[in-house]
Amino acid sequence: MNYQLILPNGFTLLGDPIMEFQSVSFAVTTRAGSAWDPVGKYGMAAFVCEMMLRGAGNRNTRQFLEDIDRIGIDRTESLTSSTMEFRGALLKENLNDALELYADLLQKPVMPEEELEAGRQVLLQEVLSMEDNPEGKLAQVLEEQFYGKAWGHDADGDRSGIESITWNEVRAQYERLLMPNRCVMAVTGNFDWEKTAHKVEELFSEWEKKEIPQKPEFVRDRVPIHIELDSPQTQIGLVWETLPYSHPEQLKVRAATSVLSGGMNSRLFNEVREKRGLCYDVDAHLQSFWSVAGVFCTASCRQENAQQTLDIILQEIRKLGQGITEEELQAFKARYRMMILTSRESCQGWASELIGDWVNFGRIRPNEELLKKVEDLTVKEINAYLAEHPVEDILLCTLGQKPLCL
Description:
Number of helices: 16
Number of domains: 2
CATH class of the largest domain: Alpha Beta
Largest sheet: 6 strands, mixed
Strand content: 15-25%
Shape: globular
Strand order of the largest sheet: 1-2-6-3-5-4
Distance between the termini: 50 Å
CATH architecture of the largest domain: 2-Layer Sandwich
């Protein structure tokens, strides 16, 4: 059974007790992602996240890390264009200690000015590692061209931005974006909802509500791009607009995308890799914000195979308009059911799933609802949708010796 608590200041707590577990997990997401990085200061959100982890409340960096170890928190942090998220898994008896620690992290981070340069070096290492990753670089360029700079730039930032950011700017960005009315916490696993809700209310009710900053706009001036790279490999990236999560017909798009690239028997895997041996890797996946979504398709291949690889990928994309088969739909349904039914097996992952549902749909959708929707899907309605909405306006981005032609 799922629970929700919304404090007067807007801080939201979600809970799903799973008493057969011996551990408990939590996740807390705040809408303070890289999309709010100031122009020319790309990497600001990453800097805020890095400095928040350097002491909290009356603890310095060392004491904060010692408390993490003492409590036994298996912690991770993640940053996207829209959110900053902190996650942890631990023994059930230590949950209150963990909540106290992360309450200080969110509300009272020390962010020591004398450790700014150490934090800067950590972030620069992350950015420099991308220079040796052509697949990652191509994917980033593709997102920038599709979403625009604000939503598409690398959440880790760039070298010039990170090198120019000051401590005052980091602190000001924290004060501007971290607020209870932009935070959602989820707790899953073996815990008592009533006690946990009371503890969260005690820890977060005094956090001051703030005015929510304006959301950056998506820029849809999409331009094809080729980046020259002296390499025997060519990286190919394609993207086209589709229905976002919020659209009632989005599951049809998800099914069609899965047929295109959803496993070892998908069309792209068979036609591009297995039959012709054209590339090392080919993939298509759906990526969605609330109002904008795209199907992103990427492939890595040798330069001499690049144009043929692109041609076959485009052929398979366009063939989707002719429809899918019953066998392909059943394979998608099996994968979807497995994903839904196993999602609660990882408490930490399930906590993030609860937050995603709440942020995207304003509620936690029960598994029964999701399973019924996929079971009700038919080949006829998917094919009707594909026939009425052919893939158009494909954006091409490439990285390699020579540009390619759509």
